[in-house]
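Entry type: protein chain
Record version: 2
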Amino acid sequence: MWFKTLRIYRLTAPLGCSAEELPGLLETRAFAPCGGLDVSRTGWVPALDSAASGFVHSHSDHHLLCARTQTRLLPASAVREALDDRVAEQETKDGRKLGRRERNELKDEIVQTLLPRALTRSQLTRAVLIESKGLLLIDAKAAARAEDLLNLLRETLGALAVKPLVPARNPVEIMTAWLAGTRLPQRLALGQHCDLRDPLHQANVVRCRAQELATREVRNHLEAGKTVASLGLQWNDRMQFVLAEDLSASAVKYLDVRERDAGYEGEDEAAELARLDGDFVLMSMELDKLVADLIEVFGSAE
């Protein structure tokens, strides 16, 4: 349940429903497994990963949502192999080469035949809605995965006015200055991770991992013209993460908290829900404060 990544979105208009109405609306788009010919399906599941919890789990104005996406795994190599066999068989039977249209038709038939027997894989994507601040925080490493949740929420509510947080001040310039020796803001400190990129040659990237960043070696790269693409930071001695130039965060770790997603053996349902609720309250409050500090440092171009 603890967010490992973070993408920050701003609501540019009210949701169009109250917090009390939201669970009922999400239930109308509850997750259902893939049918025989479905490539993928997405829907809402209980927010705390427990059958006893609701589709929205709330504390004050912090609301946790969870979307599940199930995808059928149909390897392209398997389709290609089956297609090659069918094409060879048909060409031998007809005594001629098949055209592109005929090959595509055969491919469609093969996919329709294999799809119902394909294995499935599921992914959960969670989000925290901070109603009073008009923020939506999504635990998604890839922007496309976050967009899938936003699209599902948009379809569920009928409309959703939202956009990624756009900084008012250039994060690349600010993070490069920090690495060059400029004092960091209160509650932020350098970590041990950075990616340095040549602005003129995007493929020219130097990656530093698990090493001291305030060194002559790193400064030499900055003096040669490289800028920061991502930077490891520690916040308030409670959280560490890698901040990218779009203000998304990855490799999030909670330093003062034992993360307990695995649960406790023998724990009953009521105890599990109480524990997960406590985890959510702590995590959402920490993320709320972190995002507030990031907005204070980088600004928000609304």
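Comment: The first strand starts at residue 7 and ends at 11.
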